[in-house]
Amino acid sequence: MNILSLFGKRGESASVAKNRLQILLAHERADDGSDAVLISSLREDILAVVAKRVDIDPDSVRLEMDRSGDVTTLGIDIELPAAKAS
Amino acid sequence: MISSTLYAAKRRSSTALVRDKKLHNLFLLPASQTRDKDALTEEGVASVINELRMYFDWVICDSPAGIERGATLAMRHADEAIIVSNPEVSSVRDCDRIIGLLDAKTKVAEDGGRMPKHLMITRYDTDRAKTGDMLATDDVVDILSVPLIGVVPESKDVLKASNVGLPVTLSDENSPPAKAYMEATRRLLGENIPVTIPEEKKSLFGKLFKGRAA
Ligand SMILES: Nc1ncnc2c1ncn2[C@@H]1O[C@H](COP(=O)(O)OP(=O)(O)OP(=O)(O)O)[C@@H](O)[C@H]1O
Ligand SMILES: [Mg+2]
């Protein structure tokens, strides 16, 4: 047994990081911007719906599309104002 | 930079500028956190920057984190850009997106020009890069294809400086991060000096100890 394997192989995590980045960025750079347009329209729609009921800061609606690998996910994150003490 | 203070500055000329206590040729336009973040319009930012251009050699717009509206507003009227990245996947990824925006959503780009870009890598740990546990400067430069303007080492001096409310370049100008920032500044000003990674002077004992603990 290689003694180094006791401590994990040298050089592994940085090269994994570089690989991951290359794959990730290849996907993202191939994107022609249509995702960004879709996201911004979705964001406006969602904001309009939520704003009908809750008084929210437009910046508090965040959407993120992730196209890494075979699945595409859409993350929606909405921050509501703190409950008023009254 | 992205604040309603900026907006006020637009209306009342440069009166919102605050002179730095230590550096008398440095002025700050503080970002106040107000509820109405949209008080800042693109035209407002443009006119403030154009006004400041007349009085200052350099107008530095600090961009908020991420790739949201704040960042696009800050970069919009820039003549050149410094992209700051940690040697980490998420940070490099964000930088790649920012580079895309710099080449598409800025005034320079829209006018058919090319935004000059500089890459600054910060919180760098030479030892960890050497043992392969941190992306090396060459990896990051490779991936982003932007020339290096400086490498700032990870250093305890940064927190020490921030504790006493000073930039690290003033709190200890001989510290490795201070040297890195000063060198990067000289490169930005056009000097042609090779990029080095300033390091802590280690005693022999420190070296041995560090070698063992790695
Ligand atoms: N070279 C360094 N060595 C050690 N710590 C550092 C170094 N550079 C920055 N830090 C620490 O990292 C933290 C974030 O730094 P800084 O505020 O410069 O980052 P930022 O990218 O501007 O963050 P934000 O996106 O929140 O504006 C600070 O707490 C600082 O002390
Ligand atoms: Mg910051």
TrEMBL record, chain A:
InterPro entries per record: MinE, MinE_sf
Keyword annotations of the record: Cell cycle, Cell division
Domain of life according to the entry: Bacteria
Coiled-coil positions: none
Pfam family, one: MinE
Biological process (GO), any one: regulation of division septum assembly
Transmembrane spans: none
Task performed by this protein: Prevents the cell division inhibition by proteins MinC and MinD at internal division sites while permitting inhibition at polar sites. This ensures cell division at the proper site by restricting the formation of a division septum at the midpoint of the long axis of the cell.
Family: Belongs to the MinE family.
Protein name according to UniProt: Cell division topological specificity factor
Gene: minE
